[in-house]
What we know:
The complex is a heterodimer.
Chain A: H1 6-20, H2 27-32, H3 44-58, H4 74-84
Helix pairs in contact in A: 1-3, 1-4
Chain B: H1 5-8, E1 16-23, E2 29-32, H2 35-47, E3 56-61, H3 68-81, E4 87-90, E5 93-96, E6 99-108, H4 114-126, E7 138-145, E8 148-156, H5 163-172, H6 193-201, H7 203-222, E9 240-247, H8 248-261, H9 265-281, E10 285-292, H10 298-301, E11 309-316, H11 322-338, H12 344-358, E12 366-372, H13 384-391, E13 395-402, E14 409-415, E15 420-427, H14 433-452, H15 460-464, E16 475-478, E17 481-484, H16 485-492, E18 496-500, E19 503-509, H17 514-523, E20 536-540, H18 549-554, E21 557-561
Amino acid sequence: MTLQDRDDLRRTLAGMVAEVSEGEVTAEQVLASPHPLAALGVTSITQIRLIDAVEVAFGIDVDLDGDLRFLDNVDSLADYVRARAAP
Amino acid sequence: MTSPAAARIPGLGESRTLRIPFDAASGPRSGPLTWAQQHMHLLIQELGPQSQSVNLKFSWPLRATAGEDEVLAALRDTVETFDALRTVTVGDEQRVLRSGELAVPVVEAGAGAVVATAGRVAEAMWAVPFDIAGEWPLRAALVSSGGRLRHLVLAASHLAIDQGGGEWIQHRLRGVLARPPAPVAVPEPVHQPLDEAEWERSPEGAQRGERAIAHHEATYQAMPQTMLPRAAAEVERPRFRYLQYDSAALALAVGALAARHKVGHSAVLYAGICAIAGHVSALDRAFLQLTVGNRIAPRTRYSVGMHTQDVPVSVELGDASIADVIARSGTAITRAARFGQYPPVTLVARRRAIELDRGLSFDLSCWLNYRQAGTRRAAAPVGARTLEEAASRSRWRWIEGLDSSTSTYFVFADDAGDLLRVTLLFDSAVLPPDEAITWLRGVERLLCAAVTTDVGMSEVGKHTDLAQASYGADWLNTDAGWAHLPTVAALLGDAAVVADGRDIVAYLTGEADLPRLHAECVAALPGLRTAVAPTRYVLVAEAPDARTPGAWRAAPVSCSWRPGSAGLP
Lengths: 87, 569
């Protein structure tokens, strides 16, 4: 997947969250909510599925040995992906 | 191949036996064991001939209208569909066979004794180790009463399936079960163990495996040697005991804390156990081997196979509150679960290299296996009085023990939503039974307290009545954990062992091959929880007259070497 502008990337990531959460949250909820993903019902298993999906989609290795706060919301995740994915 | 075990299972040999011939669409084929199978194979070899403790058992009531032909057809379909159930292990190879016969004893139960009989049959089939090369990895029996089949009982080799695999077997058999699981659209084709072995050898699988290894290596670099630095005592048989603890209070507390800290329930329980173990042994870092299901990837999710592996998970406790420990545990478990699938033989080799560098031998005998058994309820606000009342209803009981196990303590946690059943398998030579009870009560009390109070690690004793170990002056808290200096000295023969800060320094006179001496010392550590190898070795030309630590430190040094450094100067 190629990198898109930030809003497109946010929407793509929100769709991924919805897909891996299997209906627990919708992409619209993810985009609209000011709360962390965990507060929306994104479990640790869903987080790991999301990491898998992001790695495959953008061809990056997600580093889990550092600070994991980039998984808190779709904005921080978008910033993380843009910083690591090839332009 | 038939089912030779049926005849050697006590109580089943005399039963009427039904025979299920099967002939699968594919096979025979063979290939390497998957990483999870290698992991279990290593464990079974370690356990020796008495490997029954890793067997699995399942017991499901049958639908009242399910006839004999229908039940046998369902079993035939299940065995023909899933390669894992037609696989034997020969050496390092799995061989999927195509056809054969499953012998199914039918045990008659008296009126009102169906469930008890099913339990007895399950126990009997579970208690006999599997012949992994010469027996089907699935044993089946039926319990009948009043002229109809009432219960299906299965025992399985853990080399073939894990608990998740058992759930998908149940799903496949749902048409004949009295309480069938909700139907799930399971994707086709079925992902088989040999498919998984192929993925592991793919570039993607190999890369994932290497990343997982790197993560676990980093964990090993920080872990103490053992969570119980104490000598094993002589105890009566059975040495390994089972303690079952049922607690509604623990279920409430775990649910409330998981919601508050936005972590999984397993992370809360992990944090509670680590806090107790760290407090008791006065360690500022704790670890547990965590059993990871490895069913997050879509390909493995619905698989009838063995995917479970154990990973080391470590958490820092120093200067922390229980809330901090829970949050740290959540992060540590997410990382560990992400890297739950790895080549075990490679990790063992890397671990041994780290053990040699750090001068220790990890005591990887403390485990947690958290299983969600019921529907999870939304956590509701819970107060001290509710928790106290729930705790007053907690019950514990002893279950028959074992003479052989690799566990110092293995915590099986079955979370039924409103009740948490903790089954503790423990080595009574290291953890006395009375202390084991206090540990489980302690986890309950600590986590209940943490729901309503901000509890610090320094307050664990106050909340649990568990005393902290008191180490004498001849013990040292090293980077590898607590070590009893006279025991270290005894491993080294003529060396003098001296504490220097958190380092243990071995002083020797004359000439010595220091790397070899160190390797021999590390090789002597397994099973010895009270010693680690020296952090540094110093050769002095002559022993000082006064054999005091100060005199040894002042002696002229001819050579000094620290394990893990490039080599001798």
